[in-house]
Amino acid sequence: MDKLRALQYFVASAEKRSFSAAARHFEVSVPAVSKLITALERDLRASLFDRAAKGLTLTADGEAYLDACRPILEQLAGADAALSGAAGRPHGMLVVGAPAFVAQSCLLPALPRFHTRYPDIQIDLRVVNRLGDPEASAADVFVLAGWPESEDLISRPIAQGRFLVCASPGYWAAHGVPQEPKDLARHQCLLLRNPGSTVLDLWRGDWKGKDESVTVSGWLMSSHRDVLLDAVLAGEGVIRASDLTTQAPLRSGRLVPVLLEWVLRDAPPINLLFRPKNRRTPRVRLFVDFVTELFLDLQAERDKSLTKLSSSERPYWYQHSHGRASAAIRRL
């Protein structure tokens, strides 16, 4: 149990006489507040609230505990303010969790600008694909692709990717350019295995007003997107990739998109997540603002002539265990 967060939720719930009001204050779910306060009561072996339809009422134990907790939280807030104001500018270590392909293609090119603005903030950039990854417990901020869910984190979608079917100019010259989606069945389509171990071999979208899905295959699959991208750039096959994380090779012409009328589905959004207790920490707040601005710029720079954006609706296979996405749809 996070004792500090439990105390913060308890004090807010007591002052507002409502779990839902406390949840809105901390930008978390009502179950997250209720669960942590229940754990606190279990740890204390005391009931802090009388819960009724009209709202919360402190018990005698709750009144005494509230009087004891308030000075502690006020003292901690004062210590945080003193530390954040030290030396007159933001400083300290910031741990950022992101998938390798997001870190390399989007964050790393921009981080020197962040360092120039805030030279006293150190960045510890860790590879995190999912909130359950081992490195995730240390992160202050996450920049994740997909549809992550957490009751304990503030989550903001900051960009919507769109899928493009791409290969190198040499590959298209050697193997021909597909004229419609079904032509991909005769191409070497290199496949991503997502963090849930599903091979994403079903490419689906809207083609000239009709739903068009193709089960693709190829000689190489990997859970590391950049392994596939390097192979594609070397002329070894075709990739379905988000334009937000492949802007450099698209601009240079090393990647050439095809089937531009095929509006592909299932492209993951980019999400910014951080812990409620850190939202007022200057280095966290500054990084959150910087990354939000960065992805707004990346979306503005994208080639709007390529294809339309598709919905960011979560695919049916996202949180289910399937060997292949194409097998999952056959079970529906």
Explain this structure:
The protein starts with a helix and ends with a helix. The chain is an alpha+beta fold and 332 residues long. The protein has 3 domains: 3-84, Winged helix-like DNA-binding domain superfamily/Winged helix DNA-binding domain (Arc Repressor Mutant, subunit A, Orthogonal Bundle); 90-161 and 269-301, Periplasmic binding protein-like II (D-Maltodextrin-Binding Protein, domain 2); 163-265 and 316-330, D-Maltodextrin-Binding Protein, domain 2. Helix 1 packs across helix 2 (19-26) and helix 5 (100-117) packs across helix 9. The chain contains 10 helices and 15 strands. The strands form 5 sheets. Strands 4-3-5-15-6 form a 5-stranded mixed β-sheet, with helices on one face. The chain has a 3-stranded antiparallel β-sheet with strand order 12-7-13. Strands 10-9-14 form a 3-stranded antiparallel β-sheet, with no helix packed on it. It is elongated, with a radius of gyration of 24 Å. The longest helix is centred in the N-terminal third of the chain and has 25 residues, at 60-84.
- Strand line-up of the largest beta sheet: 4-3-5-15-6
Secondary-structure-derived class: alpha+beta
Number of domains: 3
Tell me the radius of gyration. 24 Å
What is the global morphology? elongated
End-to-end separation in angstroms reads 39 Å
- What is the CATH first-level class name of the largest domain? Alpha Beta
**What string gives the helices and strands in order?**
HHHEEHEHEEEEHEEEEHEHEEEHH
CATH topology of the largest domain: D-Maltodextrin-Binding Protein, domain 2
> What's the CATH superfamily of the largest domain, by name?
Periplasmic binding protein-like II
Largest sheet: 5 strands, mixed
Portion in helices: 25-40%
Oligomer: single chain
Mean pLDDT: 88
Number of β-strand runs: 15
Number of helices: 10
Provide the low-confidence segments as ranges: none
Strand content: 15-25%
